[in-house]
Amino acid sequence: MSMHRKYASMLLSETLERKLRSIAAEGHNSKKTASWYQECVKGFSTFLEEKRIEPTVGNLTIDNVEWYLADLRTRFDPRNKKEQVRISPNTVANRARGLRALSNWLYERDYTKEHQLAKLSIPKAILEDPEIVEPHEIQKLLNRIDFRAAYGYRDACVILMLYDLGLRAGELCNLTMEDVHLEGKTGWVYVKASTTKSRKPRPVPLGARLHEMLTNYVERYRDNVTIRQNKPTDHLFRNRNGQKFTTNGILEILYRRSEEAGIRRLHPHLLRHSSACLSIEAGTNELFVKQKLGHSDLGMTDYYSHLAARRSILKQQKAFSLADQITIKEDKPRKTRNDKGKPRKVKPIPPQLRAVK
What we know:
about 350 residues; mainly alpha; hpI Integrase, Chain A; three-stranded antiparallel β-sheet
């Protein structure tokens, strides 16, 4: 393959630095995106060094990448210290996507004359349906919370906003008081473009229950939370220091509250999945769900429609099963003489006499 000789000898580590600077210049503040590229490039570079191949742009070829992906399938995940577990197919597919995306970026920036990995086949990932948090589980969790305490009321509002509105944890953390509109009988929250994944703002309406709870929280509990600093932030939800929540703070609340309620461990994106799926099951229009969750296109929303359809099939099968409509007359099993644990009686066989010649 033809390639600019000037950049063919450039190390992949330097390429990674340039890519991360490009991400920062575009205004993306996602640490996960940067971490994703780092894992993909460093893993591939380490593999090349083990094979005594210099980790350069010139060696970012489809043959070397396929060799690397095949090697990944035989390795154990170093993050699992309790037992040896093979690296999952999803991880292998993610590494392939990351390297192909880097190759495309090199081509677009004219570092290479061709997209070196354009014909790379991405391994198929295993897509399992996410578990859906049912309303009775949230009810059980809320029943364990003391609504008379400021922290308890705050935590209940946080959980319901994640579950009802389908907000991402980062979007919830960055909500300020000017983003919350509680005037009148109905209200809504405004999610700023700078806090969303798609870089598009969106208003999200509040239901009657959540509108009432947020109004009570703002009027009675928000300023009554003990604050260890003199200058609290203007964010809707604040931690003990008076500053905005972090995603780790949200995780801590969900882990602690779910453990207290004796239910499975919850996390923000599980509640987001549940919000989307259950909304569609209830008959909500897909376009409304797309707007509520902030999807850039209907592709992801369509995934939740298929998930809701699969759940509906299971429910209908339980309610109406063809096998349940058939009356089967089963013959009773025949009893044997030793069914009651009594020894079987053996009839003695008389000896046969032989004639003596």
